[in-house]
Amino acid sequence: MSREIYINVEQHEKRVTVLDNKRIEEFYIERADTVNLVGNVYKGKVESVLPGIEAAFVNIGLEKNGFLYVTDVERDASDFDRLLGEESPEQQQEKKEPQKKRSIAAMLKKGDEVLVQVVKEPISTKGARLTAHISIPGRFLVLMPFDNRIGLSKRIEDHKERDRIRKIIEDLRLPKDIGFIVRTAAIGASQKDFFRETRYLIRLWQHIKYKAKKTKPPQLIHQEYDLILRTARDNFTETTAKLEVDSKNDYKRISKFLRMTSPQLRSRLKLYTDRMPIFEKYDVERQIDKVYNRIIQLKSGGYLVFDETESLVAIDVNSGKSVGHKSLEETAFRTNLEAAEEIPRQLRLRDIGGIIIIDFIDMEFGGHRKAIVKTLEKAIENDKAKTKILNISSIGLVEMTRQRVRRSIEAKSHQRCPYCGGRGTIKSPSTVSTKLARQLTRTLSVTRAREVFVTLNPEVASYVVAPERNMIKQLERRFRKYIRVIEDPNQHMEEIKIDEKR
Fold first, then answer.
1. Among residues of the chain, what percentage have pLDDT more than 90?
2. By C-alpha distance, which of 202, 230, 196 is closest to 16?
3. Judging by beta carbons within 10 Å of its beta carbon (0-12, 13-18, 19+), is residue 38 exposed, middle or buried?
4. Measured distance CA(192)–CA(199) in Å, rounded
5. What is the secondary structure of 437-486 as a DSSP string?
6. Rounded Cα–Cα distance for residues 488 and 173 (Å)
7. What is the pTM of this model?
8. What is the mean pLDDT of residues 270-291?
9. What is the pLDDT of residues 335-379, one digit of tens each?
10. In sequence order, what are the residues at sequence separation of 6 or more whose Cβ sits closer than 8 angstroms to the Cβ of residue 415?
C-alpha cells in the first residue's frame, strides 16, 4: 500500500493531503472563517416561488437564500407528517402510485416549511444549492430516508463481492420505507460492520426527524462532519497505509471515530510529534505550492495553462520544449497523452468544477484523438466527483463537466485583484496618458486657476513628461496655464488626481 494521508492542523486552518507513491493526489483545505455547509440539513422557509424557472428560494438562516429546483423537491415537501414518515395507510398507498410531472407552484408556496440539505455551497453571487432529497452518509452506507431502494456503488465491480453484500443487506432486515446506497469503502466489510452502521444511521435519522418537528425555521437541524472526520470517513480505507495527524485533539477524535466504525484501521492512525512541520517532513509543502501555479510543467517539456473564469475553466496544452519525437504529429500526440493523464489529477487537486474546456495540441490522425479521449476517461475514473467527457473536436477541443460542490482551491485562497479588478491586466502608461490628456483638456477649459497639479504613478509620470511626446507643453501653450506633474509611488498605475490652485 503506497497511499498515505497527512493532516496539518493549525489555529486558523486545517489541511489534508492524500499521497500515492509520495506524490500528492488530493488536497483539501478548511479555514476557521469559512464554515462547511455541504451536507448540512436545515429546516427552511420558502421565501418565493418562481414558476418561470421552476425553482424556489428558501431561507435557511444564511446571508443569501438557498436555491431549490423543482427536480430537487421531495413530493409534498411542505407536508411534514408525510415527509417524516407519519402518513396514514391511504397516504402510503398514494405515495406508491406513479407520479406525473408537477410544477414548482403546485408543490410549494410562499411561507411553506421545508426540510432541505445543502448540496452546493454559495459561490460568487449565488446562494447555496439545496435539495429535499436528504441523504445521510456513513462510512460504508448512505441512508436515503425518502427512497426505499438498495443500491450498490458502480465501483464495486467484483460480482462475488456484490452478491455477498446484497446477502448481508437482506439478512439485516432493514426498514422497508427507507433506502441505502452501499459505498465503495464497504468492500470487504463484515456483517457486523453493516449492522453497526445501519443502526447508527437510523438512530441519527430519527433524531433529525424529531428535531425537525420541534424546531421553527430557519434552523440548522444536522451538521455535517468537519474536514478532519470527513477525511477519516471518506478517505481512510483499507487501501491506505497510514493516516498521520499533528494535532493531539484531532488524533483522539479520529481514534474515537474509528473505534465506532473501523477498529481494524486504528493501528494505522499515527500522531505526528516531531518539531519539524509535518508537511515539510514528508515533502508535501513544496508540492502544495505548485497547486496555486497557473502553469504546470510536464515531464516531456510541455506545459498546461489553467485559466478560471466566471463561466468556465480553460486548460491550454502546449508543447513547450517537447521536441524530441520524429514528427510534429508524434510530438503533439505524446504531449497530449501526458496532458490527458495529468489534467484529471490537477482537477482533483484544485477542486475545479463546472464547465471545463481543454485545448489539446492539434492532431491529424483520428486514432490519436480517440486515444487521448480514452486516456482522459481512464485517468478520471477514480475521481469522486461526477464527470462527463465529450468527444474531442477536429481542432483538438474537449468539453467536459465536473461536479462543483465547493469553491475551488484558488477561489478559497485568492481574492479578486484590487488593482486590475480581476482582468489580469492593467492599463498601459500610454492609455493612462491619453485619458489624462482628455481630463486635463476638460479641466483647463473651465478653470480660472493659473496652475493645475497632476499626481501620477512614477511610471506614468515619466511617460507623460518625456520630451519626445511634448504632451504637457502643448496643453500649457493651448490654455496658457501651468501644469505641474507630481510623482507618487503609492498611487495606482491607472489613477489620476487633478487639483487646482488659484
1. 61
2. 230
3. middle
4. 11
5. HHHHHHHHTT---SEEEEEE-HHHHHHHH-TTT-HHHHHHHHHT-EEEEE
6. 77
7. 0.79
8. 93
9. 999 999 999 999 999 888 889 999 999 988 889 999 999 999 999
10. none
From CA 337, how far away is CA 344, in angstroms rounded?
12
Tell me how far apart the alpha carbons of residues 141 and 185 are, in angstroms, rounded to a whole number: 9
- A 10 A CB-CB count for 457 gives 20
- CB contact at 8 A, 180 and 151: yes
**Cα–Cα distance, 405 to 121 (Å, whole number):** 6
Tell me how far apart the alpha carbons of residues 420 and 18 are, in angstroms, rounded to a whole number.
35
Q: How far apart are CA 149 and CA 142, in angstroms?
A: 12
Residue linked to cell 498601459 = 428
* Count of all residues that appear for the chain in the document: 502
Bridge partners of 359?
A: 316, 397
Cell of 202: 437510523
- According to DSSP, the residues that pair with 7 across neighbouring strands are 16, 245
Give dist(CA 437, CA 197) in Å, integer. 73
Bond preceding residue 218 cis, omega within 30 of 0: yes
- 12-45 pLDDT, tens per residue? 899 999 999 999 999 999 887 777 899 999 999 9
Identify the pLDDT of residue 50. Answer: 93
pLDDT band for position 468 (cuts 50, 70, 90): confident
Going by C-alpha positions, the residue among 111, 115, 150, 112 that lies closest to residue 133 is 115
Contact 500, 443 (CB under 8 A): yes
Scanning the structure block, which residue is given the C-alpha cell 472563517? 33
Residues forming beta bridges with residue 66, ordered by sequence position: 58
Q: Could you give the C-alpha distances from 157 to 235, 382, 420, in angstroms and in order? A: 19, 13, 51
Terminal-to-terminal C-alpha distance of the chain: 80
